[in-house]
Amino acid sequence: MKEHEIRPEALLKRYVELSARDAETCFKDAPRTAVPCVACGGGPGMEQFAKHGFAYQRCAACGTLYQSPRPSVAAYEAFYRRSESSRYWAEVFYPAVAEVRREKIFRPRVERLAAMCAERGFAVDSLIDAGAGYGVFLDEWRQRFPQTRLTAVEPSESLAKECRAKGFTVVEEVVENAKGLEGSADLVTCFEVLEHVHDPLAFVQVLKGLAKPGGRVFVSTLGIDGFDLSVLWERSTQISPPHHINFLSLKGFARLFERAGLSDVVVTTPGRLDVDIVRNAAKTDPSLLEEQRFLRALVEDEAAGAAFQGFLAANRLSSHAWVMGTKP
To answer: Where are the domains of the chain?
Structure first.
């Protein structure tokens, strides 16, 4: 898989431009409050950089990168309802890559997640997907496991409609407001949402509440210990406020899930794009690796880069993280 297949350059560039504009127009007068580390609760953090008017700190205790001082929950909710970048993602960007992502991301995701469940010896008779989007993950899971009871929690009216069209039970709410699902799922999944949420601890606690005793909570998100984020840092297109505000470390993921009351926490990084992301960024801006001769040679060599990507994934050094915990 290559970055341009799931994030075409022109679409990504436009999305980043709109995000930068929204950072100014949607939050210009919004009051901000300093927050402790979103993973371990420690603080204050060490100042790192500001991007589009949003300051980021890094936790001295667990290494998590997080945005602080932070606008209010209400300001973020208004942003996601009204911003140009959010609308562009839902109406232009994602529809353009939906089927490619089905093949390249969601189908392999189902196989890998199912294998994780099998390795831990538990059956998934009921599954809730929080932030289900277009319902592609649930659709692929149903094709592989048609007997599973599937529920989509999706706050967007248009995306909830897409999920209903696919025949899923849909709760059209943010997951924090979803009612009647408490303690009902063997597996609760949430893909690429944690990096957006205002209060990750409260969010994971809500996910835990949806799981049965002995059930699992799973999230995938961005991890700051990974190769492409560590190399590119504030110049990474993935660090894109106001959308992406939480980048937990490996230690931070474990601490967050433990604070939320989950046990047997497992953190892996099965990412496949770190090297390609750095390679593409360096092509766009050669100064990024100007003084990194070894690194530049490594990412420019396709065979060596592929081998290195495998090393990153195997050693929890990719920036695409998977985290699973068990509800006692």
So the answer is: 3-326
